[in-house]
Amino acid sequence: MTPDAAPHLIPNPPVGVAVIGVGLMGAHHAENLAHRVPGARLVGLADPQPGLAERHAARLGCPRWTLDYQQLLADPAVEAVVIATPAPFHAEVIVAAALAGKAVFCEKPIAHRLADADRAIAATRNARVLFQIGFQRRFDREFVRARDLVNSGGLGRIQFLRSLTRDPSLDEPERVPPGAIFRETLIHDFDVLRFLAGGAEPVEVYAMADALVLPDWKSRGLLDSAVVALRYDSGALATADASFQAVYGYDVPLVNLVRLTWSTTPNRVPRDHGCIGSWTCSARPTPPSLFILSPEFEPKLQPRRAVITAAGRRPAARTAAPRWCSRSRR
Ligand SMILES: NC(=O)c1ccc[n+]([C@@H]2O[C@H](COP(=O)([O-])OP(=O)(O)OC[C@H]3O[C@@H](n4cnc5c(N)ncnc54)[C@H](O)[C@@H]3O)[C@@H](O)[C@H]2O)c1
After folding, report:
1. Ligand 1 binding pocket includes 274 (Cβ within 6 Å)
2. Does the C-beta of 49 come closer than 6 Å to ligand 1?
3. 29, 101, 105, 160: which sits with the fewest CB atoms below 10 Å from its CB?
4. Would residue 324 count as lying in a domain?
5. Domain of residue 259, CATH code
6. pTM to 2 decimals?
7. Whole-angstrom Cα distance, residue 109 to residue 86?
8. Is the C-beta atom of 228 inside 6 A of ligand 1?
9. Is the model more confident about 328 or about 122?
């Protein structure tokens, strides 16, 4: 649920949210929380890089910053956290936030290893805290419409799904961790291919990847282009593919090819042939200049709104008093 759909649920007073890890995505989340998410208040920033959290705190009028996220977790003013550290740290921070009783929004992927993902999920369940992963495509209007159509049976039996992701450019290959095209990029496609499969689950997966954009980086472990094929337990098939460099911009279309039932197209197909129809949705191609840092890329706001709406209806977590610096104490 989002406040857009239910404005009376916007928390008042606003939920105090801190951001842990204020690199590219964390700074984006912090900016949204400071200015654009109804019912939320940006109350703290943490990042081990000296000066980074402090700089963003000054820019956004955030009252607290620290190098050590544990200090934020000890502060009762922090009711929820947004975790935007690199993925290998996610599980550790999720577990710590859950133990501190904070609602957790964590960027994808939940972890790089299954055992860490299980550990993080168990910690949030045991602590009974809200927990959400940043799969923003689920909140895009078109993807929501597609899911409603699938679940209502309006598209008939799903036979084939295709999802693709195009990032606009690969400018800093040294910042791309090994396997990122699968674990950090195509993970969005894997998510929507489950989200839109009407409950079917993948049972077979085949994958190929290469360094086609920057072949010279292949020996250093870079994979910048990938294709994945899946078969579901329903018998449906799917493909997902990704490229780190589509020069026309950021693009996330999804094509859903289905068998339309006779009743939905009574005048267009002979009864005994059925019909293969197609339906497409997209998170709206975004020019490289806007990419993910633009407020116009609305789906990125939605998950935060959902967790914040829910967090606002829960009693604030009880935690110990903070023992750390804040801008007002400097
Ligand atoms: N949902 C999306 O579309 C999307 C897009 C880009 C990135 N992401 C995800 O966001 C996360 C962050 O990516 P990024 O591109 O912002 O990375 P980044 O490297 O730009 O930023 C990560 C920040 O976390 C800080 N950090 C590292 N360890 C920390 C710790 N223990 N505590 C606090 N801060 C710590 C780093 O100093 C850095 O400033 C990744 O999981 C990535 O997959 C999601």
Report:
1. no
2. yes
3. 160
4. no
5. 3.30.360.10
6. 0.82
7. 9
8. no
9. 122
Q: How many domains does the chain have?
A: 2
pLDDT tens by residue, 86-105: 999 999 999 999 999 999 99
Alpha carbon 259 to its chain centroid, in Å, reads 30
Listed residue (219, 220, 217) closest to 244, CA to CA: 217
Say yes or no: CB of residue 89 within 6 Å of ligand 1: yes
Residue 247: exposed, middle, or buried by beta-carbon count in 10 A (0-12, 13-18, 19+)?
exposed
DSSP-derived pairing of the beta strands 40-46 and 65-66: parallel
Give the tens place of pLDDT for each residue, 289-326: 333 333 334 444 444 555 555 554 444 343 333 333 33
Q: What is the mean pLDDT of residues 188-197?
A: 92
Strand order of the β-sheet with 275-282 is 202-210, 225-232, 237-243, 157-166, 253-260, 275-282
Mean pLDDT across 228-236 = 95
| Residues 92 and 157 both lie in one domain | no
